[in-house]
Design goal:
Layout (H helix, E strand, L loop, with lengths): L1 H21 L5 H17 L7 H13 L1 E3 L6 H15 L5 E3 L9 E4 L2 H4 L9 H11 L2 E13 L7 E2 L7 E2 L17 E6 L11 E3 L2 H9 L2 E3 L2 E2 L1 H8 L5 E3 L6 E4 L6 E2 L8 E12 L35 H5 L3
Antiparallel strand pairs: 1-12, 2-3, 3-4, 4-14, 5-6, 7-12, 7-14, 8-11, 8-13, 9-10
Helix pairs in contact: 3-6, 7-8
The structure holds 2-oxoglutaric acid and fe (ii) ion (FE2).
Length: 324
């Protein structure tokens, strides 16, 4: 018990230091180690592009933490992916519920999507790869591919009322602004799979790096604990980028340095997303990367395998009670 408390408080202090120092909630080690590693790779295995447009896009991505860049995959590939997705998401053995708290059904992931839908490889095209390589200034690897969908959850399930406490927001699908707890050099390429994704049908929201930094330093502690000026800044933020668009629309995003959240689809809507997780690497991306993608520990084959400490989940309930 004592060890647990010590771990808890050292994590809290390290986290607080990282929030003030780095201006994000990705965690202390995820900031320090990532920058060190990226500097080393840039030095030892430099990579990039001579194309002025690619360089401008990469600079924007590094400065702002996001860049809209659509996939060049054609309609017929996207339609094929969509119809495979429909079959797999309805198949109890091919997909798994990974929502939070009482609504595990709020988010459902395809298990091993790259093996089930090989066409996904074509969604990550060379133009996107060139921007990523240039932004890193070194090579990169595709660490994981995910495909998931979110569903409508009624408002009453998105707040929790304690007996004496004020109402707290509840995360069922990463619907509260958060930073992913991965090394801050991680980039994600999100691609829309369902049509009509807009602000009220589940669009992902992203807050650019500079604005995230201001909010995190002004009183953002955790997704469900935002205080003082940070609360106001988060409630009325003109910088929020809404990732809407037709199937194939893409967004490169640093979700460790940009606060972001899933929108809740309105009643009658579901939203499906494809996500490529990208990490810096000493070696060029092999042409056959898709055939050798290791299993994603964050999307297990059975519910029993779920690791409750999974780092990209928002804070579990017991932690928040300590701040009440
Ligand atoms: O579903 C989304 O739009 C965002 C999901 C997300 O941020 C996460 O899983 O960390
Ligand atoms: Fe996230």
């Amino acid at each position: 018990m004592q060890g647990t408390a010590l771990r808890y408080y050292s994590r809290m202090i390290a986290g607080e230091y990282a929030r003030l120092c780095y201006g994000n909630d990705a965690g202390f080690g995820n900031n320090t180690r990532a920058w060190r590693e990226l500097r080393r790779l840039r030095h030892e295995s430099p990579a990039g592009s001579n194309d002025a447009d690619v360089n401008a896009a990469a600079r924007l991505l590094n400065d702002e933490g996001w860049l809209k860049i659509d996939s060049t995959a054609g309609d017929s590939i996207l339609r094929r992916i969509r119809s495979r997705y429909e079959a797999l998401i309805a198949d109890a053995d091919a997909s798994i519920d990974l929502g939070f708290g009482r609504r595990v059904d709020a988010v459902r992931h395809i298990i091993d999507p790259m093996a089930q839908i090989p066409e996904l490889g074509a969604v990550f095209d060379e133009r996107v790869a060139e921007v990523v390589r240039t932004a890193y200034g070194t090579h990169f690897a595709v660490a994981a591919v995910r495909v998931w969908r979110t569903i409508h959850i009624p408002d009453r399930e998105l707040v929790r009322r304690g007996r004496f406490r004020r109402a707290r927001p509840v995360s069922v699908m990463a619907n509260l602004f958060h930073n992913d707890e991965h090394p801050v050099s991680t980039l994600k390429y999100f691609v829309q799979l369902t049509p009509d994704v807009g602000p009220d049908t589940g669009a992902l929201r992203v807050i650019p790096i500079h604005s995230t930094r201001r909010i995190v330093r002004a009183g953002y502690l955790r997704p469900d604990a935002v205080f003082g000026p940070a609360r106001r800044l988060l409630a009325a933020n003109d910088d929020v980028v809404v990732f809407d668009g037709a199937p194939g629309s893409g967004l490169l995003c640093n979700s460790e340095r940009c606060l972001h959240r899933a929108g809740i689809p309105k009643a009658g809507f579901e939203r499906a997303m494809i996500q490529f997780t990208l990490v810096p690497s000493a070696r060029p991306l092999p042409a056959d990367w898709a055939a050798h993608l290791p299993p994603d520990p964050g999307v297990p084959r059975r519910a029993l395998d779920i690791d409750l400490t999974r780092s990209d989940r928002v804070a579990p309930t017991p932690r928040s009670d300590l701040f009440a």
